[in-house]
Amino acid sequence: MFRINGVTGAAEAQRLEAWVPRSDDQNRMIERAVRAHHDVVRKWLIGRLGNCADADDVLQSVYLRIWRYAEDHIIENPRALMFTTAARLATNELVRRRRQLSRDGGDGEQDGTAAVEADAPDPEQQRVLREDVERTLAAIGDLPAKPRRAFELSRFEGRTYAEIAGLLEVSESSVEKYMITALKTLRTRLRIGESATIVDFEAARKRSG
Amino acid sequence: MTDARETADEAAARWKARAESGTFSDADRAALDVWLAASADNRAAWNSYAALDEQLDAALEAELLADLETFAAAEEAPPERPVKRPFLWAGGGAAVAASIAAAFALLPVGTASVVTASYETPIGARDSIALSDGSRITLNSGTAIEVAMSDARRRVTLVRGEALFDVARNRDRPFMVEAGETDISVLGTQFDVAVADTGAQVAVLSGVVRVSLPAALGAEAVLLAGERIVSDHDRDRLGPKTRFDPAEVTDWQTGTARFVEAPLSAVIAELNTYREQHIRLGSDDLAALQVTGTFDLDRPGAAVAALEAALPLRAEAEPDGGILLLAQ
Q1: CA-CA distance, B165 to B139, in Å (whole number)?
Q2: Can you tell me the mean pLDDT for B284-292?
Q3: DSSP per position, A105-121
Q4: Distance from CA of A134 to the nearest CA of B (A)
Q5: Within B3-145, where are the H helices?
Q6: Nearest Cβ partner of A192 from B26, B52, B68?
Q7: pLDDT mean across residues, chain A
Q8: pTM of the entire structure?
Q9: Candidates B22, B46, B67; nearest CB to A101
C-alpha cells in the first residue's frame, strides 16, 4: 500500500524513515475502515446512482482519492473521510450526467485531489457553508409543490423530464414549465446574479479554450 | 433591472430548463451558443444560473452525505426492538369507542430514554397523529402502530393495517418502520406502508426509502419517489419494484377509493377494510368482474348500491349484518 516513488537524496530518505511507521499504521487504519464500510457505501451508491457499474466506478474513485490523500495527510476519522468522499463523488456523477444531458463539454476534469483536500474547511468556513446549504434547502422546500417535485427529481435523482412527466402524470412541457419556475424562483430567492462578480461566460470560454 | 435584462433572464431560465430535459440535441446546443454570443445581457443571465448550480450542487452534496449517514446508521445498528407490550385494548376490541387512543410509557434504556406510545384506529375510522419530532402519521381503518422515540432513533412498528408516513427530516435520528418482517429506513420523506400476514407493501411518494428483509440476506431495495414494492414474508423475498399512481395510494386519506379496471374481488377486499361486517361474493365467477369507479369509503353502503347499479349483481343482507353479492 505504501508507495515510495522517485525518492532521491539522504534527507528525503531520512524524512521517509521517520514517516513510514505512522503512515503504515494509517494505511492499516484506512484499510480497516474501507473493509468495514465497503458494503454499506456500495449499496448506497447503487441506490442513488441506479446501477452497479456507475456505483463501482465511483467507489473505485473514492478509494483512489482516499489513498492519495492519506499519502500526505493524517487521517483522524477514516469513516468520515470515506463518507464525505463518496457523497462528493456521487454528486460529481450526478452533475456529470446533467452536463451530458445539456451537451456541455464544460470544465471536464474538475476533480483531482482538490476535492478531497477541500474536505476539511476550517470551522468558520464550515459554518458559512452549512448556512448556505441550509438556506438553499429551505429555498427548495418553499417552492410550490409541483415545481419542487420536478426540481428534486431532476436535480437530486437525475431523472429526465420524460421520466418526471410519467411520475407526476403531467406532460413533458409542464415539467419544463415547473423547472423554469423552480430555477427562476431559486435564483431570485438566493439572490444570485445581483453582485457584480460574475465572470463573462464568453471571455471565460476563450481563456480556457 | 432593464427590460432587456429581464428578457434575457427569462430566456436564460428557459434555455436552462430545456438543456436539462434529456432531449437537448447538438443542434439545440449550437442554438444556445448563438444566443449566448448575441449579447452580454444573455451571457450575464446565463452565468447567474451557472452560479446557482454551484450552490444547488453544494446543497445536493450535503443531502447525499446526510442520506449516506442515515443509510449507514440503519445498516450498521442492530435493530433496536421496542419493548413489546400488549395493547391496552388487545382482546377487548369491541369496547373501543374512541377513534384513536394512546398509551405512553417512559422506559429507561441504559442512559438514553425511549418514549413509547401505541395508537389504534377501529374499523371504519381514520386518524392522524403528530409525533414530537414533527413527523405525521395518518392511520387507515383498522390500523395499529407502536412508536418508540429515542435520541438516536425513531422507530415505528406497523402492527396491522396501513399508514402514510410524512417524516420530518433529521439526519441524526434515522426513522425506521417495521412492518412484520420488513424493515424500512428513511431520512425524511413521505411514504405509505400496508402490512398483512403474508407481507408488506411500501409505496414512496417523495424522497428515498430503503426496504429490507433482515431475515433474508441481501433482500433489500432502495425505492425512489413513485416506486412501490411488495415483500413476501412467507418466502422471505422482495418482489420487483413497480411504478404506481400516487393518487391511488393516498386516496384513503380523503375517504375515497379509486379503481380502474380492477377485479371485483379486489374492490370487495378494499371495502371490507372499512367494515366490521364483511361483504361476500355469492360465487367465485363474480370475482373477475371488472370495476372502474370512485367509491366513498365512509359510506360502504353507497358503494354496494353503486356496484349493484353498474354490474349484473344484487345484494342480499345477511343475518350477521354482512352483505352477500349474487349474480342477477
Answers
A1: 9
A2: 84
A3: --S----TTHHHHTT--
A4: 8
A5: 3-19, 26-38, 40-76
A6: B52
A7: 74
A8: 0.48
A9: B22
